[in-house]
Specification:
globular, 20% strand, 10 helices, alpha+beta, five-stranded mixed beta barrel, 201 residues
């Protein structure tokens, strides 16, 4: 099994990239979100990979982080969602956005993924609720550095919960809070006010 590829980004197509590894070009399918975070063509890349073997084809799916790959594996473990459907989910939602959507029972956010209907979204939420940990999403948020200072994960969490209480979707609230350039002097109210400004843009 191919665990990862490290090589030169040789090309980008509609739904996949070409990675040159020692003179061999590997076609690797990726989510739209991940492709948007790739470096320039000609740069070195490392992709964590999942090999899908079918009767008539062998397909590689690539991810920038191990977390992306692990979430992808959980998603395609849901009956009715194949690798392409899994990429569609991760194109519409980042792993952390998906964690919040699942734990908040946000069917609408998951249905934004191409090919995912209401019943499939409900099944995904039911099967992944105990596998996608809310605490992990908060840890990722807390580890993100803005203006050189680590953001307090508890304040982020409370701000998201406050926005949800105001009627905003959990995924929408999370994205707005993550855009706030917070520092260690800020309180929940400060983060909330700035997040609301992002949501009104």
């Amino acid at each position: 099994m191919i665990s990862y590829l490290r090589g030169t980004l040789a090309g980008v197509e509609e739904d996949k990239v070409i990675v040159d590894v020692g003179g061999v070009g590997y076609g690797v399918y990726m989510s739209g979100q991940a492709m948007g975070r790739l470096p320039a063509i000609g740069s070195e890349v490392k992709l964590h990979t999942y090999l899908n073997v079918k009767e008539d084809a062998m397909q590689l799916y690539g991810f920038l982080t191990r977390d992306d790959l692990s979430v992808f594996k959980l998603v395609i473990g849901v009956n009715g969602i194949g690798p392409k459907g899994g990429l569609g989910v991760l194109s519409a939602l980042s792993p952390d956005d998906l964690r919040f959507a699942v734990l908040a029972n946000d069917v609408k956010a998951i249905c934004a993924a191409p090919g995912i209907g209401k019943k499939t979204a409900e099944k995904l939420i039911l099967e992944l609720r105990d596998k996608l940990k809310f605490e992990e999403a908060l840890e990722h948020i807390a580890s993100e550095v803005t203006v050189g200072v680590e953001v307090n994960g508890q304040i982020q969490s409370e701000a998201v919960q406050a926005l949800v209480a105001l009627g905003y979707g959990s995924t929408e609230a999370l994205k707005a809070v993550r855009k706030v350039e917070a520092d260690e002097t800020m309180e929940v109210e400060d983060v909330l006010k700035l997040a609301l400004k992002h949501m009104s843009l």
